[in-house]
Amino acid sequence: MDTVTVERFEANRSRLASLAYRLLGSAADAEDAVQDAFLRWQAADQAHIEVPEAWLTKVVTNLSLDRLRSARTRHERAVGAWLPEPLLDGDPMLGPADTVEQRELVTLAVLTLMERLSPIERAVYVLREAFSHSHAEVAAILDITESASQQHAHRARRRVAAERNATEVDSATARRIVEAFVAAAASGRTERLLALLTDDVTGIADGAGLAEKFVWFTGPERIAAMLRAGFKSSPAKRNRASGSPAIHFGMVNGTPAVIAALDNRVLGVMVMEMRDDRIAAVCGISSPSRLGRFTAEWCRHEHDDPFIELW
């Protein structure tokens, strides 16, 4: 393949990876989809591709839809053994974040909500909301009518909006709330922790990938008990982690988070959705299979001093 052809693809790689990530919720799967698109680009007759950007968008979208529709993917997601793969803010795979809609669409909460959409609804929603494609362009990408694109977009927008209960907070406010949260959880003082949680707070944890299904928590008392247990020191935890991890503030998928790191290893991420300056949902991810790209990005950047060291 000649250099010009490769360069034309590479000029689109970041955008294609961002598109695939939003459709799949997995950085690893997104990278695979983009690589498959590159192989098709190599094999294609370049002379007959008038607009490379449009051709590549169509290929990556349909490769991603094939993955969403696969039997393996349907099974994994149906049994509850799936969560979006978190990405550290600044990762180019997060893509455009100029509008509220673009920022919301890449949060773990919305990526999880999009699991309730059909693959075609998800594709229309992403192409419209994140990449501002017209209904005519979406119709051409997905081989549907403009009317169908409009209907899918309306249904997807309505279903996602009905489930959303979080609000955006500025970075300074987010950091203040997270710092208070860490201090309360580490102190073991339940009343301080409960004051930071909404009455309808929910939580989910992946159990470090050891459980077949994830663990759900509902209600402030149960969430507080789970958090106190997680922050409580013990020799067993230190042995398992091979040391005492440092607890940092970070922004993950555009959302405030607590990041536990030890010797350039990210051991876990706890992402927090906020509403009215309180925590409305927590999502804990500590499975190494979901933290590979996150850890690589973490090691590339300088970090603020940690809040505390655990265990």
Report on the architecture of this protein.
The structure is a single chain. The protein has 311 residues and is of the alpha+beta class. It folds into two domains: 3-161, no CATH class; 171-309, Nuclear Transport Factor 2, Chain: A (Roll). Helices cover 52% and strands 16% of the residues. The chain is built from 15 helices and seven strands. Strand 3 (246-252) and strand 4 (255-262) form a beta hairpin. Helix 2 (13-24) packs parallel to helix 4 (52-69), helix 3 crosses helix 4 (52-69) and helix 9 (135-142) packs across helix 10. The longest helix is centred in the first third of the chain and has 18 residues, at 52-69. The N and C termini lie far apart (54 Å).
Task: Label this structure with key terms.
52% helix; Nuclear Transport Factor 2, Chain: A; alpha+beta; 311 residues; globular; seven-stranded mixed beta sheet; single chain
